[in-house]
Specification:
mainly alpha; Glycosyltransferase; 2 strands; globular; DUF2264_N; UCP014753; Chondroitin_lyas
Amino acid sequence: MSDTFTTWKEDRAYWVDVLHRIANPVLSALAERRLKRTMPVEGKIADRPLYTHLEALGRLLAGLAPWLEKGPSDGEEGQLRERYAQLARAAIDAGTDPESPDFMNFSEGFQPIVDTAFLAHALLRAPNELWEKLDERIKRNVAAALKATRTRKPWFNNWLLFSAMIETALYRIGEPDWDAMRIDYALKQHEQWYLGDGTYGDGPEYHADYYNSFVIHPMLIDITETVHELYPEWGQMRERVLKRAQGYADIQERSISPEGTFPVHGRSLAYRFGAFQLLAQIAYRNELPEDTEPAQVRCALTAVIRRMIEAPGTFDAEGWLTIGFCGHQPSIGETYISTGSLYLCSTVFLPLGLPAGDPFWQGEAEWTSKKAWSGLSVPIASALK
């Protein structure tokens, strides 16, 4: 075994520390209702302040949610988790209260449908900490915010899942007027866009980017997980959705180089290691392929996180994320990218919802490309229909 490995305890502590560095500026500011006043808005076009704050809230909580819901309740990590759960609830209040200076835009322009969906995804992932523990006033505001996006028409691509995720959350929180049609349309359209080998088209065409992991697989999994019992055809999709996701997760694990890097291609590279949300989610669900050890995924993801988060310029002087892939690289951000967008990187931390005794956090193992480039035996990759 390479002497560059850290122990699993060090890995978990490192993940928690990085998550803290990423989350603290956003949630602390929101809890004090000063996010709009203090968060910088780096971007290429002038309209991003209209959207960036909801981006930061929804995307960050989508990644934190499993840790908030299932993380430890004792010890230093447990105390930190409890603090962040309280901050997260205060942040949701600040962002959805019409009287708050940090009240967010849920109904102007197209972008709000995207990040309201990430917020909805967080509610599905942490229903106790991020929904049940809210008081009734906040719950009413959250439901109203979700419904406000219904005036936004999604594009004919992965955006259909944003509408579906919002309606799924409305169903989950008990709103009687949730819209089954928006869910049905998104699920059935993605069935038509499936291309094979665990890959969906982003719309009718294939796109060589990471949107199968940023959005498509993670939302398909949690939507079908939540609503599969309601209609027979939705239930029939559930197994196919998971099998395809496992196939794509295998591809993702194999794409991590021995050095902890991965291919630089496609849109939205400024989401950094959020590109591995799907692999992190399959690990969190304990549904990795049989020949993939959970520890090898942890070691691979840790290598990626270290390569990216420790690059100079990743954070500004006040601790906010900057636009870039490995460090501060403003040129890599598309026109829709701004400071709030970057917090989708938090989705790599989904396995923090697993207890410390889970195999994911136990032992050390080399990942596939590290073994392959060392001349060691690796399992054959097989195509998935």
